[in-house]
Amino acid sequence: MTAVPVRAAPAVPDLRDLTLPELGEWVTGLGEAPYRARQVFRWLWRRPVTGFHEMTDLPVELRRVLEARAQSSTLETVEVRASRDGTRKLLLRLSDGGQIEAVLIPEGRRLTACISSQVGCGMACQFCLTATMGLRRNLRPGEIAGQLPALRSALGPDERITHIVLMGMGEPLANFPAVETALKILIAPEGLAFPARRITVSTVGLVPGIRRLARAALGVNLAVSLTATTDELRDRLVPINRRYPLGELLRACREFPLPPRRRMTFEYVLMAAVNDHIEDAHRLAGLLRGIRCKVNLIPLNEAPEIPFRRPARQRIEAFQQVLERAGYVAPIRESRGEDIAAACGMLAVAEGQLDSAASNPYSDQCGVEQLGSSLGS
Ligand code: SAH
User: Fold this and answer.
1) Using only C-alpha atoms, what is the Rg of the chain?
2) What is the pTM of this model?
3) Looking at ligand 1, which residue's alpha carbon is closest to its atom 24?
């Protein structure tokens, strides 16, 4: 009788899923000197090569060992779509055939890379298109960090990515271990050497994840997608609120360590006659009192699958005024890349991709569907 493997481990480790210290352990486990890890790490992240055989400052014998015992997966750019406003969306193919999206957003002198943390999303926010995909699987660390080099190869000669936001597909804090490792790779001087203060992790409000991120002390910024000011409404729009209600969420935000002069961000997606009342704005100002923050007002991006509408401009501005009078910085985020479906909440790739959770150690499902009946339906 042949046993069916329940969870097949990857045949060989993907070295792009390791931080430098982890790679160090693995390399010394082969009987190699620790400095070899730094060499390999630099090749993996700073110099694009197609395989270990091209890592020319390594001894030939070590290159052979790496070829046999490790892999280094890359993301394949399937398509680049350019918006009229300069936004570019990349469709990236994962090694198992799954696909994700990553976006480049120019704003004045800034060029922001918006990257994904999961294939799909399990949070079921009622106004978000990615939610309609459900959660397919978690991304692995190398697949998260690897979006930066993929986006870089789509840049023009004078362009440089200045900011990274984990605001693409998925809920980053529902894939915490992989996101943490990816952040370490992005920040590491021998890795992608990206300044932590220019990286923002955006969450729907997973309180334990916010606390873990605080403890990890990576120096990255936090954004919280709030979008409602009462538990009654938030329970409906953002189902995870039933588990982590506003009071608890805001307490975790208040306790999140902020370096001097730094602010956290609250995202508020405005929907006509749902959460765009003047009373909502006053309540929001009250809820956030004492938190060093700014509020990004995001007029809803409409889609046929989404049962809400964008408020009239006048309502949006009236909402903004209340916040500004209460002393908040509250920019209205103009929609970017809408013509290529790259705008907030619009990332959803076509059906029919593989779910290869079996070989992915980061595949534990943590979506709302798995929260059980306490959430109702
Ligand atoms: N899961 C994380 C990361 C995704 S960020 C989070 O929720 O923060 C995606 C951002 O787009 C979130 O702020 C979300 O509230 C917003 N969003 C989702 N659907 C949207 C829509 N239809 N129009 C405008 N913004 C939307």
Assistant:
1) 21
2) 0.91
3) 300
Contact call for residues 213 and 174 (beta carbons, < 8 A): no
> Based on the number of CB atoms within 10 Å of its own CB, is 101 exposed (0-12), middle (13-18) or buried (19 or more)?
buried
Please tell me which residue in 101, 143, 180, 267 is annotated as part of the active site: 101
The answer, yes or no, to whether any atom of ligand 1 lies below 6 A from the CB of 52, is no
Any atom of ligand 1 within 6 Å of the Cβ of 167: yes
Q: What is the DSSP letter of 310?
A: P
Which listed residue (121, 125, 253, 344) is catalytic?
344
Residue 88 burial by CB count (10 A; 0-12/13-18/19+): exposed, middle or buried? Answer: buried
Do residues 321 and 276 touch, judged by C-beta distance below 8 A?
Answer: no
Residues 6+ apart with CB under 8 A from 302: 308, 309, 310
Report whether 202 contacts 172 (CB < 8 A). Answer: yes
Domains assigned to the chain: 15-69 (1.10.150.530), 76-372 (3.20.20.70)
Q: Which residues pair with 270 in a beta bridge?
A: 299
How far is the centre of ligand 1, averaged over its atoms, from the C-alpha of 228 (Å)? 13
What does each of the 377 residues of the chain score in pLDDT, given as a tens digit? 444 445 555 579 999 999 999 999 999 999 999 999 999 999 999 987 889 999 999 999 999 999 999 999 889 999 999 999 999 999 999 999 999 999 999 999 999 999 999 999 999 999 999 999 999 999 999 999 999 999 999 999 999 999 999 999 999 999 999 999 999 999 999 999 999 999 999 999 999 999 999 999 999 999 999 999 999 999 999 999 999 999 999 999 999 999 999 999 999 999 999 999 999 999 999 999 999 999 999 999 999 999 999 999 999 999 999 999 999 999 999 888 888 787 787 878 754 443 444 445 565 444 444 443 333 33
Rounded Cα–Cα distance for residues 271 and 277 (Å): 10
Counting ligand 1 atoms within 8 A of each CB, the residue from 166, 167, 310, 346 with the most, and so the one to mutate, is 167
Provide the CB-side half-sphere exposure for 7 (13 A, CA).
6
- Please indicate whether residue 268, judged by its CB atom, sits closer than 6 Å to ligand 1: no
